[in-house]
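Input sequence (373 aa), recorded before submission:
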Amino acid sequence: MWARWLIGAGVFLVIASGGSLVGAKVVLSSATGAVTEQNLIGKAKTTTERKRADVKGAKNILLVGLDTRPSWKNKEPSRSDSIILVHLPADHSPIYMVSLPRDSYVDIPAYDNGAQSYPGGKNKINSAFAFGSRGLDGAAAEAHGFELLALTVKELTGITPDAGAIIDFEGFKDVVKVLGKVCMYVDEDVTSIHVGHTADGKQAVPYKTDSSGANPRKVAGVTANFYAKGDHCFTPVEALDFARQRDLLALRDSDYGRQRHQQQLLKAIIRQAVKDGLSSPTKLPGLVTAVGRTMTVDNGGISLEDWAFALRGTNPDDLITIKTNDGTFNSESISGIGSVEILSDTTMDLLESVKKDKVDTFLQENPSWITES
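Predicted structure, token format:
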């Protein structure tokens, strides 16, 4: 979506400033050419659905965030760090973003990726990407991991994604480098468990965790990065670090806090890009390229150019971010899996409203589910 805003707003500025449609086409071609396109949704969307696809009507886009790309050469599976449903109502305004908790306890369908098969069963939703990508590397691992996740989301919600994208959070740094900084309101004190510095100013890890990534222990002589509640302008390293925090040591509400902060940061980057990047002839090419490199996109049968032109009238403030489970824990311990998150009945009502294009009605009845951003 942020690439779409960059592309659409960039084309609009070219035309509005007296440029020709040919000039706009050059900008659009450059922008879309920077994005890697690949079939990610796979069997979750039939060939017939792809052939009939157009931008009219309500649309649902599945975004999957990978915190760090796996070492594909070792064929190590990767769990999706963030799973977001972006819902575009029939009139394409406003746009809704719903984050699914990564520990959501769901049914994952049986799946064979050609290298390893998964028999199906209940597990955390972020395991779907891992089960789909096992034994594969490169683009094949991404495609099969995303496909099984899309099939899992379809079974959970009844929603067939119209398009999809994998976002590499490491790429945030390059986008912010082009912008110079990204500024936003930090809604709580956040202590980093990932990035800090020694007394002589060298970057260092302030906490060590066990093999499962849990139970952080303080590293002597290292001061952790601290992001105080209030207005803050992040450097590229700080922006990525802030988006990664989920440990209870760092946040009071763990994964729900990270969901909220990732949504807020994404919106802040979009705002900053529209404000400072699109108006700068020197920044725009690098910005478009940096955004493109963060993503692998499945356009669902609708060209990126058509997506861009259809949605060019929207702006960052048209994006409404929504909590699942109203941002409160509904956890349960499952033998062999650990602590999982049970989606509440009201969350299932929210997902049903996405399916039926009735999110506005749901939010009128549940206004507290809107995330402050």
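Checked by second reader. Residues 12 and 18 are 10 Å apart (CA to CA).
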